[in-house]
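Quick note —
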Amino acid sequence: MGGRGELYGMRKDGSEFRIEIGLNLIQADHGRQVLAAITDITDRLRAAEAARSREELFRTVANSAPVLIWVAGTDKQCTFFNEGWLKFTGHALEQKLGQG
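Predicted structure written out below.
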């Protein structure tokens, strides 16, 4: 169980699903015990894949647009510049990320 590989659970019908196992060592009155929490992470993995797909679509559209596009967070720090912005300004992405 110490590996970092993918772990799977099996439903009664034989189908597999991804799981995450958390282990905690507990010192009880009668000695050490291990508390194991097994979580079905199927929904979390689907949501992460959907987010990656949306991010990829955004970048494709933004980099294809004939306008300058940049994104900043509520902290006013820039997190994205499209290729048009970088070409127009002559700046490298690494120079500008994180600047206000």
